[in-house]
Amino acid sequence: MIEILRKRRSIRRFEDKPIEPEKIELLKEAVLRSPSSRNFEPWEFIFVDNRELLKKLSKSKPHGAAFLKEAALGIVVCADERKSDVWVEDCSIASILAQLTAQSLGLGSCWIQLRKRYYEEGTSSEDYIHSVLAIPDNIRVLSIIAVGYPAEQPEPILRSDLKNNKIHSNHW
Questions:
Q1: What's the mean pLDDT in 136-156?
Q2: Which is it for strands 139-148 and 73-80: parallel, antiparallel or unpaired?
Q3: Spatial CA neighbour of 99 closest among 39, 43, 143
Q4: pTM of the model
Q5: Residue 10: beta bridge partners?
């Protein structure tokens, strides 16, 4: 696991290459194995590989989503907030597990934050995604994980460059 963490970087440029069905199935298994508070499993996932839909979803906010149109897959991470008051945390765990699984499969990924973001003034990114994907009103949208074969290879962050001052022992 530590090697996956060492190599994982956010990828925003993707090759024009589809992801093999068996890798998509492994990504589905990974998110469904994601832990959730009290095992309530409030999360829901929409796997989007349709090019036109990916292009529409890439417009979900003015900054930080455009690269989705080049990805082979977008995993929309949602939840029924009525099932758990910690749905944000549960979906965050599922989102990072999708990214780490993608890395382990030789794929690149990048998290697109949607909750509390705006498509345009007066319309939230969540509302826009709801309209594009016909998501029921009771389902909240946290993120989209863009996935594909990387067309860039950012250098791993060196151990010596980690912010060790963020680690405290026993007290602040």
A1: 96
A2: antiparallel
A3: 143
A4: 0.96
A5: 109
